[in-house]
Protein 1
Amino acid sequence: MIELLRRFGGKFRRYMVIGPACKLIEVIFDLLTPLVIAQMIDKGIGAHDVNAVIHYGMVLGAMAVIGISFTLVCQKMAALTSQGMGTDIRGALYQHINKLSYAELDRFGTPSLITRITNDVNQVQLAVALGVRMLIRWPFLAVGSMCAALAIDLKLGMIFLICTPAIGLVFWFVMARCIPYYKQLQAKLDRIALICREGLSGARVVRAFVREGHERERFAQAADDQANTAIAVGKLSSVLNPVTFLVMNLGVCAILWVGGIQVNAGELTQGQVMAFVNYMTQTLTSIVYVANLVVVFTKASASASRINEVLNCVPSITDEDNEPVALPQAPATDIDAPVSALSFDHASFSFGVGAANAVSDVTLELPLCKTLGIIGGTGSGKSTLVSLIPRLYDAGTGSVSVMGSDVRAWPLEQLRRVVATVPQRASLVSGTIRSNLTWRDESATDEELWTALDMAQASEFVHNKPQGLDAPVEAGGKNFSGGQRQRLTIARALVGTPQVLIMDDSASALDFKTDAALRHAIRERSVRGAAEGGLPLTTVIVSQRVSTVRDADMICVLDHGSVAGLGTHDELYTTCQLYREICQSQLRREELEGQQGSAMPAPAPGAPAAPASTCAKEGC
Ligand SMILES: Nc1ncnc2c1ncn2[C@@H]1O[C@H](COP(=O)(O)OP(=O)(O)O)[C@@H](O)[C@H]1O
Ligand SMILES: [Mg+2]
């Protein structure tokens, strides 16, 4: 909490001084009030002097008005500080989360980050508001009331000295047991958020698999778990109020009893006894409020450490001081020179310390303008491998280079502008088709957008929308079919002239004909772009379908993160057992027969040297 105050409180220091100072003045009036009431009783009511009653009544009224005025100023300061700090913390968190790499985001998890940015910031905000308003008030009122009471009469003050520690002790006992529960409550809230998010975002799948009952059960368990902890805290703290009021009222009885005897003996006035009773209630109520403050601050401190954990997390992927990389402009004449667009040099990656490698010792080189197909079973590391290219993750060992430069030497923005990725899960955000397409280039013209849509085989259904490019897109693109969403995300990647296009299983929802037309359009663009002296396009196509990758210039067969085979379709079919098995399970008999009869095509004279087919799979 202190760390957050140090980081974000500076701007509000003035408010944090003015607010409590105003509160202090209000407390002083509160402390004086019982004394004025005592005077009113003794000099007015006791002496049957109406003028004195009116006089002290007016003094009380004036004190109340002044007190309220200072309170209002304090409230305003508290609101400005807490809301301002809340906004700043939320903004800083959001910005920082955007700088974190996938590895850090995986570690925290999206639901936890959402809870931190909402619930945890709210807790801190509440604590700051209460801090400005109450941190001075209740302790000062408790101590002040006690001192004032002792100043009136030491003998009666003994009752105070017994009651106050008694209540303090009860509070200490209860709070010490409650505080660990408060910390657990936050973690349990995270779990509820996680289940909620999974259940709601996957509502269709849940229904399709008739898993509603299971999901409800899972949610109920998490909610019950949180509720049980909250009930345990509630039970513990439920003893506080009755005990406080019991002690307080016993104390008041004792004061009235002993005080009554002293009044009869002429040692005290009635007004002084009343003042005593007031101070007693003020002190004990203050202790209750101080305990509430302890609860709020405990929760806030748990929240603050969760916020600091995110803010202090250093992004593992940075690009400080990286100079822009000069890009090769490949005119038609130079295409034959095998400029390396993409290369992996013994690249390995694992998702956690001690976890098995998701990508293991991958070495390959793809010349400019060529197409790399990556094929392999589910979980074979295809997505992980391609995510090393735009530096969504950094290779643990080995290196990845784009256009001959190590990706770690690129400015991240330039790298991600040059490398366009179509993720496996098509993600669109609410807005319009245009606002979704212009992510990579906000100034893209309508013509560029339509060209991209044409290539992505999406122009037809966009044309059919009455508003065309301005047709609305709902959150997550749920007003489009899976295939349409995929085509729109492909079009988005094609806007802004990328030089490396990565399609991670992003044509899986397209029918074979559309998939083929899409690949043809991309190849056309690649060849035409290069022939016209424009920016050459190198493509990486990840797929589980042989038909999608078979025409690629180079195919990489992945198996458990390792390269099981590398070469063209024909080469791999004859040399790589795993690839042949995949082909046999997917291609029609005629296609396979044609395959078996086909001779290995000789490379065209002058064509970039196709890498010699290699196969790491035993028996290949
Ligand atoms: N965010 C992640 N955290 C931990 N493990 C992961 C993560 N993403 C993928 N993996 C693991 O890495 C392996 C490769 O996954 P992935 O690259 O997505 O496979 P593919 O795209 O070939 O289906 C799998 O075993 C998967 O369980
Ligand atoms: Mg994948």
Protein 2
Amino acid sequence: MPVLTRLIPSPVVVDINAGALDGLAGLLADQRISASGKLAVAISGGSGARLRERLAPALPGAEWYEVGGGTLDDAIKLGDAMKKGHYDAVVGLGGGKIIDCAKYAAARIGLPLVAVATNLSHDGLCSPVATLDNDAGRGSYGVPNPIAVVIDLDIIREAPVRFVRSGIGDAISNISAVADWELSHRETGESIDGLAAAMARQAGEAVLRHPGEVGDDAFLQVLAEGLVLTGISMSVAGDSRPASGACHEINHAFDILYPRRSASHGEQCGLGAAFAMHLRGDRETSALMAGVLRRHGLPVTPGEIGFTDEEFVAAVAYAPKTRPGRYTILEHLDLSTDQIRDAYADYAQAVSS
Ligand SMILES: [Zn+2]
């Protein structure tokens, strides 16, 4: 009888709780992530200072590194600076930029990364991808999954609410991304990974159908877990497919066409997902998504993030160019600009009530 299962690259520890930061030092020592306590901690220069003050006494063997920004250069500099320290692990303590920089730096010097997320703005906190700005714009770099993920809900609640909102849009967009993956499987024969699809979809559905509000611990718990599971689903799939389809192509198009005006990742992805669900004819899910996004204060029309309808139509028309080779409802329908305009008018009508 064959006993063939697979091993999933995943963190050794996931700790998502109110007050989780208080247990960070113990967690790192207990789990033998850093038995010697020698750690390189990457933090931001600004809001990181307060966390450093709080955590430094419990982490006497740690050395602290301020991360410049979210560029590839910053990440390379960080790795070079940490290289000579003989650390057990790198800790990325902060928001998405800090964690992405720390992920890349840790991969570069061959150390495991502990991700300590201080906001929930997207699903990259536990993913095998570091998103960094480079000379050509923004690049995605493959890196190992974090060895541990720690999310303190008390810290999350202190972050501006727009970060939580962004995470909601990113999580909900999984439902549209998985639908795109299934479409591509039917239409192009692209292989689909059922486990990765299940993890990503369940994460999206849990956030979509949770009755709680952005300030509730129960809701934040589900959102944080959903974003972590989404990151792991990308490791299972080997790329971002379970969490990135037409929704993310539209988001990238906003970033590229309107670089200084673009809204948050999750705002754009959530709007993109609601529209993509409408395009694929699933009016019920599109309306449900729009209602939930609206309830949490996310946009469902471009006007709500300062774009005209025509700018949105242009972004949708441009979207397939952002991710050549990815087959989604946009590539499938291959709409002309006039058809996108009509479809958007129909969508706007449907979500206006
Ligand atoms: Zn995303």
Protein 3
Amino acid sequence: MTAPTVPSGRPGGPEDPDGVHGTDGADGPGRALPGGPGPGRDSAGLIRAEEAVLAPNYHPLPVVVARAEGAWVEDVEGRRYLDLLAGYSALNFGHRHPVLVEAAHRQLDRLTLTSRAFHNDRLAGFAERLAALTGQEAVLPMNTGAEAVESAVKVARKWAYDVKGVPDGQATIVVAADNFHGRTTTVVGFSTDETARAGFGPFAPGFRIVPYNDLPALEAAVDATTAAVLLEPVQGEAGVIVPDDGYLSGVREITRRAGCLFVADEIQSGLGRTGSTLAVDLEEVTPDLVLLGKALGGGIVPVSAVVGRRDVLGVLGPGTHGSTFGGNPLAAAVGTAVVGLLETGEYQRRAAELGIVLRDGLAPLVGRGVLGFRTRGLWAGVDVDPALGTGREVGERLLAEGVLVKDTHGSTIRVAPPLTITEDQLRGALAALERVLSAG
Ligand SMILES: Cc1ncc(COP(=O)(O)O)c(C=O)c1O
């Protein structure tokens, strides 16, 4: 085993064994990056400028990223950081994966947008291969995750009225407490997170909330009006909450018995993160609809999709649903390249193998700054002892150590590195976490 590579957050140091970020060339510190900030726009200046002009709906860590490759990002001053957030899993394949960048470049030179008013020569191949990869039959392409969720809500309701025979206007959808499915008004309407909800009503009716990981509660909530059960196979934003073994197959069984749809939101858990293509694969469960997003766009363009049964997606007729950008040829080209990477099985395998390194690296920290943690594949929610500070404060200390993470819910930090991260890089990041916790 070679020594862990520990990023330092300093420019030009030996922490970049791949030599991917030269700092003494034309792009080095003190010189303007092509298309980058102008004179006087250092990190602090850019943060002040953002705060002056942007809606204040985020509280980013104080780092201004200018370039990235693989698991590394580099800030305006040329400091390097290991990215352990990976765009909330949109960067499962790392920053600027050469295969994905090449696919995007090739498509940019040919055709970028047609709208679905016309056909394009990229969409069929993308949909065929995505359906085959996920073991499903049909694809509804959209752009963002929240749009995929909204689309599934529409499809499930229409299916309930047209196929199941639910009286008009009475369809219900059962969701889990502590869910995160996006930010639209319908979706925050069935959130249990007051910060996400408060002040945005009135909300759409028709949702029933049950505790996550509680099959009897779910069974009690479904009835003749239920169109679908919608939930995350692993609750990402809630802190990487992994349900008990048997929960997902139990959900499948209950929904089958109740004659309603099982909609799995795999927008964060899907596409390799958990060590399998989909998190539901780990229990050999096939939902009726699967929602994909984030990594489907390779970290290049927003691409989402509802994939599922043909007879279910088939309830949508022309004019009932759509999106100007959904299924555009650039998205389809990048999405096809993403599917191509996943078809090799390499990224799923890496997530499973590196997930063991992650789990084994976190285990000794329990009782030494960590109260507990949960992992699934290369994905962890780590509950830091609140005595050491909030998750945000731990994130700031890790930033100083050259590691980027994001806190969620108080003292939990989530770790979701690109699946391309090397074992040494991961061990280096874990060593940084250990240092931060022991210094706290
Ligand atoms: C499970 C899940 N569903 C939906 C979304 C919403 O995706 P987007 O931000 O692309 O709308 C997210 C985003 O974090 C998510 O984690």
Protein 4
Amino acid sequence: MSRSRRRFLQNALGIGGILPFMDAAAFPGTNTFKANEIPHRPQPLKILILGGTGFLGPQQIAYALERGHAITTFNRGKTVPTTQKDVFNHVEQLLGDRENNLESLKNRKWDAIIDNSGNKVKWVIDTAQLLKDSADFYLYTSSTGVYYPYLGSDIKENTKAVLTLPPGLKEPQLSEYSYGVMKINSELEVQKAFGEKRSIIVRPTYMMGPGDRTERFIYWPVRLSRGGDVMVPGKATDPVQYIDVRDVANWMIRLIEEKKAGTYNAVGPSSPTTMHPFVYGAHAAFSSPANFIAVNDYNFLKAEKIMEVIPWIMPVDENKGSALINNQLAMANGLALTPLADSVRDMFDWWNSDDVKQERRDKLVSGTDALMAREKEILAKWKSRKK
Ligand SMILES: NC(=O)c1ccc[n+]([C@@H]2O[C@H](COP(=O)([O-])OP(=O)(O)OC[C@H]3O[C@@H](n4cnc5c(N)ncnc54)[C@H](OP(=O)(O)O)[C@@H]3O)[C@@H](O)[C@H]2O)c1
């Protein structure tokens, strides 16, 4: 969400009405739209979000409320949101557990369901079967992980996915395969219960942005803000892909509004890019002078145990095509992307806000095995090796 949007939402929340029943368009001049987002008054919808309080959920809720929709969430009440906290005063929260308690979901009606927390096939079977007559659409948050192993060079939505775990797997392949197999089978269960015409499957790549619960992408905003000699792993031609969580969240709401059933990769940037332009683009968020040092020898990186610094993933073996996912269908169906430097700046501001604990910040920079703490030594080795 842009700053002006966030401000709009805060102002709107301060007005005191129950926002889900207010229409954002009732406040002309206070809202802003991205270039390819057509301002219009969407029909107010009732949306159930399975989950809602982690990373993606708060952004979906903020955008949906802004567009006049009413939101119900279903979760255990354990996860505490670290972004968009104000919006939760305007949400109906149902408590339960996907493992064994779906009681609060019974005998209710919604226009659409968003399933963010479907991380076991059985959970998805249970909710999709239970709710197939309770809503028109079921949007399942899947992942580009369904394409693992990433062997193609232009991975489209109809690329065949592995449906069963190959025998004899060891880590790290085991976790990767398990996640992909779980996601693709969950997708199929949604389509089985709701039918393809009432199913929306969204497969995001690595999401980044305010509220990220992983320490993956945040490496770059923090590191680039500091400037100096910056290690850039990988070859200049290594492809990278990523997406702002807010772009995924907002687009999901619009897909529901527009009843766009189908399966979509949610991947940015809009056209293919590589690691070096990514680093330059992200650094544009800061004014710190930086000297980029390309550490472009995979063997050296492997010896240093640097196989990925998201969005960079060493493009070898099963990961060869992990950043070669095709986003044309998504772009043609309304996916709008935030400029990289804006995402990086917003993420940096969030990281340095009260919403993130100092301990977490310290760990990223100086924790045991923190890449940032090892960087100087790695660069020294790299320079002496080249001589
Ligand atoms: N992060 C990425 O880069 C990425 C990329 C591709 C796909 N994805 C997918 O994106 C999805 C979105 O994840 P998110 O965490 O951001 O979603 P979210 O909806 O913001 O948060 C996850 C929610 O799941 C709830 N939950 C967890 N266990 C539960 C249970 N047993 N019963 C009921 N609710 C439960 C949590 O609340 P409680 O803990 O309070 O129950 C929380 O509200 C995931 O399916 C993930 O696989 C993520």
